[in-house]
Amino acid sequence: IGDETFIIAALMAMRHPKATVLSGALSALFVMTILSTGLGRIVPNLISRKHTNSAATVLYAFFGLRLLYIAWRSSDSKSNQKKEMEEVEEKLESGQGKTPFRRFFSRFCTPIFLESFILTFLAEWGDRSQIATIALATHKNAIGVAIGASVGHTICTSLAVVGGSMLASRISQRTVATVGGLLFLGFSVSSYFYPPL
Q1: Which of 9, 137, 169, 175 fits a 20 to 30 Å CA distance from 1?
Q2: Cα(76)–Cα(71) distance, rounded to whole angstroms?
Q3: Is residue 127 within 8 Å of 37, Cβ to Cβ?
Q4: In 74-141, which residue ranges form alpha helices assigned H by DSSP?
Q5: pTM value?
Q6: What residue ranges are annotated as transmembrane (predicted)?
Q7: Are 77 and 172 in contact (CB under 8 A)?
Q8: Cα–Cα distance between 138 and 47 in angstroms, integer?
Q9: CA-to-CA distance for 139 and 170, rounded, in angstroms?
Q10: What distance, in Å, lies between the first and last C-alpha atoms of the chain?
């Protein structure tokens, strides 16, 4: 909630049909989740389970501390949210995502669907949720991770499309960052003390 993917879905839904934006964004998130889960299952075959678990523990701790730092630094969350909304609006207005790839597939999908798909996919690449999905899939049930990530993405993206601007004004980015940071630190502690067998 409150990240670039959320804001893209919210802003696009304000300008275009909600169902089209939601289907494009969710399609991109499901593809990204499957790719991330698959990568998480492949990594342990290339690197030992012990090293993979250690890397996951460090990544969880890093993201947890980073989110807590972001929460601590965000003094005026309203202005930060407004600034981030303006940046995403500029990207949408500049026509980012209008590539030859988009033109080719516009025969099969509407331009709005493709724009939603491409912008969401690119915003999600390298995002915390993608890295968390990869890390979780390295030592947890891959199907459970994929289902859980997909359900989480569906809920957040649906909230963004239905009432993104309203929700973003009610929930501070500081609160989201603090809760997320504590959750990632919990994952790190769990991964350290209860490594996979």
Answers
A1: 137
A2: 10
A3: no
A4: 77-93, 100-105, 111-124, 128-139
A5: 0.63
A6: 21-43, 55-72, 104-123, 143-163, 175-194
A7: yes
A8: 10
A9: 36
A10: 33
